[in-house]
Amino acid sequence: MRVVRRSKAAEILLALLKAPKHVRELQAEVGGSALTVDMRIQELLKEGCIEEERSEVWPFRKTLRLANRGREIAMLLKLETSLLVSPPKVSAEKAKEKGKWLLALLHAVGGTVEGSTRLQKLFFLLKREFGLSELPYNFLPFLHGPFSTDINDDALDLEIAGLIEVERGMVEPTLYVLTPKGRKVAREIYKKIPEKGVLSRVRKFNQMGLVELLKYVYAKYPRESKL
Predict the structure, then answer these.
(1) Residue 213: exposed, middle, or buried by beta-carbon count in 10 A (0-12, 13-18, 19+)?
(2) Angle value at C-alpha 57, between 51 and 59, nearest 5 degrees
């Protein structure tokens, strides 16, 4: 879709991925001329990537939000950006605090998770099926079911900090593994959290074949799985 590669289109989608915005808020965030931003908004509306909602009360402002199609594209753009841009240095302490649930999960399942899609589904089940409300991840429907960009962000920080290793395939990461340093840190985190029993319950899902796991999630949580 050509419009996504036009000036300010990607910035608009990425800005709306964070939250719906009024037109002026959006213009302030993405920058550039008001004319260019307005042209991209109209084109993205026409392509069904964004939706417009008009307030029925004063000051009658228009709010823009991503449609399902636009959300899918915005998530791909965010992933593409994270792969192309050199990641900033992250201290081990900051990465450990931000990614403590990822470290604890890896420890609970034996230190290894195969594939980004599987990792996403394990966290989704922890929150949705097992009620682990403390998880800081919010999920939206994506290409292979419920997805949270924050999980990928935390994994990248932990990789930079040397706490996990990520083996990458052609399409997505193929393996998440605790490093020796990460095993020690994850063990200490796991000892301190009271949700050990809940975390251990996803082991059976980590041992499932990926197709079987996806069928389970799609069948039980259709609304969260379909774009």
Answers:
(1) buried
(2) 85
Q: Do domains 2-72 and 87-225 have the same CATH topology?
A: yes
Q: What is the pLDDT of residue 58?
A: 59
- Domains of the chain, by residue range, sit at 2-72, 87-225
d(CA 40, CA 30): 11
The pLDDT tens digits for 8-64 are 888 999 889 888 888 888 888 888 788 888 889 999 998 899 998 876 665 567 789
* CATH number, domain 2-72: 1.10.10.10
- List the beta bridge partners of residue 66: 50
Alpha carbons within 13 angstroms on the beta-carbon side of residue 171 total: 5
CATH topology of domain 87-225: Arc Repressor Mutant, subunit A (1.10.10)
**Secondary-structure breakdown of the chain: helix, strand, coil percentages, each rounded to the nearest 5:** 60, 15, 30
Whether pTM > 0.90 for this model: the answer is no
Residue 179, both tokens: 């490093």
* pLDDT single digits (tens) 68-83: 888 888 888 877 666 5
Nearest to 151 by CA among 171, 127, 179, 169: 127
Distance CA 12, CA 31 (A): 10
